[in-house]
Design brief:
By secondary structure, this protein is α+β, with helices and mostly antiparallel strands. The chain has 3 helices and 6 strands, in the order H-H-H-E-E-E-E-E-E. The strands form 2 sheets. A 3-stranded antiparallel sheet has the order 1-4-5. A 3-stranded mixed sheet has the order 2-6-3, with no helix packed on it. Strand 4 and strand 5 form a beta hairpin. The model has no long low-confidence stretch (mean pLDDT about 90).
C-alpha cells in the first residue's frame, strides 16, 4: 500500500507538472506572441500612414483646385469687361481705347489684391536674380548695368518670382 501511495503521489506530481506546463506558455511561445503583436502594430501603422498619405494628396489637390478657382473668380470681371468692349459694334476708336484702359486698370487692381507686383522698369539697376538680360545696348547716357528697355515685365508674389523681367541692359 505504501508503494501504491507513493505511486499515486508521483502520478499526481507528473499530472500537476503537465498542467502547469500547459497553462504557462514557454518562453518561445511568449516571444512568438509578442512578435505577432508587434507585427500587427506595424501593419496597422503602415496602413494608417498610407491612408494619411492618400488623404493628404486629396487635400492638396482640392486646395490647388480651390486656389485656381479663386484666382479665376478674381479675373472674371476683367474678362466680362473685355466682352463688353468687343460686344459694342457702334463704339468709336476712342471708346475702345478708353474701355481697354479701364479694363487694364481693373486688371492691375486684381493683381494688386492678389499680392502680385510687377517689376523691371527702365532706369533700374540690373539684378540677374530677378531680371533676364536678353539684349545689351551701348548707351553712354546711362550707367553700366542699367535697364534701358523692358521687353517683358516681371512679376512676383511676395518674395517668389513668378516670371523674371526680360530686359535690355546697357554695357
Amino acid at each position: 500500500m505504501a508503494k501504491d501511495k507513493k505511486k499515486d503521489v508521483a502520478e499526481e506530481e507528473v499530472i500537476e507538472q503537465a498542467e502547469v506546463t500547459e497553462e504557462t506558455p514557454s518562453k518561445e511561445e511568449e516571444l512568438l506572441k509578442q512578435l505577432e503583436e508587434k507585427n500587427d502594430q506595424l501593419m496597422r501603422m503602415a496602413a494608417e500612414y498610407d491612408n494619411f498619405r492618400k488623404r493628404s494628396q486629396r487635400e492638396k489637390e482640392a486646395l490647388y483646385a480651390e486656389c485656381k478657382a479663386s484666382v479665376i473668380n478674381a479675373l472674371l470681371p476683367v474678362a466680362d469687361n473685355f466682352d463688353r468692349i468687343f460686344a459694342n459694334p457702334d463704339g468709336t476708336l476712342e471708346d475702345y481705347k478708353k474701355g481697354v484702359e479701364m479694363t487694364f486698370k481693373q486688371f492691375s487692381e486684381v493683381f494688386k489684391s492678389l499680392g502680385i507686383e510687377s517689376f523691371g522698369e527702365v532706369g533700374e539697376e540690373f539684378d540677374p536674380n530677378i531680371h533676364n538680360a536678353v539684349m545689351h545696348t551701348e548707351d553712354d547716357s546711362v550707367g553700366e548695368n542699367v535697364i534701358t528697355t523692358v521687353i517683358v515685365k516681371g512679376y512676383k508674389l511676395g518674395d517668389k518670382i513668378i516670371r523674371p523681367a526680360m530686359v535690355a541692359v546697357a554695357n
